[in-house]
Amino acid sequence: MGGVVYLNGLVVDPKERGKGIGTKLLFEFKAKVQQLRATMIFFFVPAANRSSVNFYDQNGFIKGKEYVFFSKNLEQRGS
Ligand SMILES: CC(C)(COP(=O)(O)OP(=O)(O)OC[C@H]1O[C@@H](n2cnc3c(N)ncnc32)[C@H](O)[C@@H]1OP(=O)(O)O)[C@@H](O)C(=O)NCCC(=O)NCCS
Asked: Which residue segments constitute the domains of the chain, with CATH numbers given?
């Protein structure tokens, strides 16, 4: 496997959403990652953020198969 790139957030101005801008940004980002000869993009999206989950689904991203995400809520009793 080649290099791995972490996507630290992709945000479109709320007034401009739903016009294909996010898809174009993602396309440009993927091209840049390929130029760097990296082969994997990873990031986290809160499961409750349905629009973003749907956005990445629609853009061919796969949910948690190559990495397993662990979390611990330190506000929970006994954590
Ligand atoms: C996620 C985000 C970047 C998408 O940008 P966008 O420019 O609105 O997305 P696009 O117009 O390119 O949408 C592409 C596809 O994603 C899906 N999608 C986008 N917004 C959606 C929404 N609100 N609800 C459901 N699906 C959505 C649709 O399938 C859409 O295709 P369609 O328009 O043919 O239905 C944008 O909504 C955003 O900035 N969200 C807040 C920031 C965030 O939570 N980022 C993710 C954490 S990294």
From this structure: 3-58 (3.40.630.30)
- Please answer whether residues 47 and 10 qualify as being in contact, where contact means their C-beta atoms are separated by less than 8 angstroms: no
Q: Residue 65 corresponds to which tokens in the numbers above? A: 């198969």
Q: Cα-flanking dihedrals φ and ψ of residue 8, to 5°?
A: -95, 60
Q: What is the pTM of this model?
A: 0.86
Q: How far is CA 23 from the centre of its chain?
A: 12
Query: CB–CB of 29/10 below 8 Å?
Result: yes
pLDDT value at 67 more than 90: no
**Ligand 1 pocket check: which of 15, 17, 24, 30 to mutate, most ligand atoms within 8 Å of Cβ?**
17
As given in the structure block, the two tokens for residue 19 are: 């016009």
